[in-house]
Design brief:
single chain; 54% helix; five-stranded parallel sheet; Zinc Finger, Delta Prime, domain 3; elongated; Rossmann fold; P-loop_NTPase; 2 domains; alpha/beta
């Protein structure tokens, strides 16, 4: 599992608290995708399971370390929704709860890791809450959630909140440059489109993803001048949520450009396109477009069995009406 330099400080802080006997039994980590929260939890778990820790480090040689490295430790539990499902039900939580109240098979710590605590159904959350309130000895919980506000307030109140914040842009750009040969403008753009999460930025810079974004930007530049419906095949894609996010980011950038805040745009490598969008529509039309595209994306993400092609077609036709006066005026 990859380790990231920005995890060193939170790792040291958390393990030092555990070492001093002041560690909280339940840690709620709020982190963006690509921040490495799973690697952080894995590192802390290895230290907790280590039978001969060396200060803040696990020894890497004891039986506990060997089991962790082989991903076969019987006292380390990962709770997440089954493949193809979006929610984590009560049965899985009850099964783990039952095991927690037995003696640890290796005689040490017992750890429960929820990579996405937002998957918990209300019944599952309540079942977990009972164990969080009265945890068995030497039992530790790690919950990750992008938006902790989506969790039950009672769950949040039993956990120590730990936000995993992105490093500053300079540090992140330096890290990206060490991982991949990339133009500075592209690296900065990828970071800003990923809300500053370096791991997510690196994934975006992979050839397939970056080419998809470039293709959308090129098509948009042509479509706003000729036929906006040319965007339909590019947006009506399995990766539609990401592609709509790119389009929305360009509209936000166009508003920034109109306000003279060009240095703060996300799409640093597409300034000509941002300037073109800013010149095509007044601020009121850009704002309305931004709201409509955001609403369209939300509907695609939240409504089951929605007709994606029909919804995108309707949105593009409505958008063309906002663009038409600017093209013909």
């Amino acid at each position: 599992m990859s380790w990231y330099p920005w995890l060193n400080q939170p790792y040291r802080q958390i393990v030092a608290q555990l070492q001093a006997g002041r560690g909280h039994h339940a840690l709620l980590i709020s982190a963006l995708p690509g921040m490495g929260d799973e690697a952080l939890v894995w590192g802390i778990s290895r230290w907790l399971m280590c039978q001969r820790p060396d200060g803040l480090k696990s020894c890497g040689e004891c039986h506990g370390c060997q089991l962790m490295m082989a991903s076969t430790h019987p006292d380390w539990y990962r709770l997440e929704a089954e493949k193809g499902k979006s929610s984590l039900g009560i049965d899985a939580v009850r099964a783990v709860n039952e095991k927690l109240y037995n003696f640890a098979q290796q005689g040490g710590a017992k750890i429960v890791w929820l990579p996405d605590a937002a998957q918990l159904t209300e019944a599952a959350a309540n079942a977990l809450l009972k164990t969080l309130e009265e945890p068995p000895a030497k039992t530790w919980f790690f919950l990750s959630c992008r938006e902790p506000s989506r969790l039950l307030a009672t769950i949040r109140s039993r956990c120590l909140s730990w936000p995993l914040l992105p490093p500053d842009e300079a540090q992140s750009q330096a890290w990206l440059a060490r991982q991949q040969e990339v133009a500075p403008e592209a690296a900065l753009t990828a970071l800003r489109l990923s809300a500053g999460a370096p791991g997510a930025a690196l994934t975006l810079l992979e050839a397939r993803s970056w080419q998809a974004r470039d293709g959308l930007c090129d098509a948009l530049s042509d479509a706003i001048q000729h036929d906006i419906m040319r965007l339909l095949p590019l947006l009506n894609h399995d990766d539609h949520a990401q592609r709509l996010a790119w389009l929305i980011s360009l509209l936000v950038d166009a508003l920034k450009w109109q306000q003279g805040a060009g240095e703060f745009i996300s799409n640093c490598d597409r300034q000509a396109l941002v300037a073109s969008l800013a010149g095509q529509m007044p601020a009121s039309a850009l704002t309305a477009s931004l709201q409509e595209w955001t609403r369209c994306r939300d509907r695609l993400l939240q409504i089951n069995a929605v007709n994606r092609e029909l919804l995108l077609t309707e949105q593009l036709l409505n958008w063309s009406l906002r663009l038409k006066p600017a093209r013909t005026g």
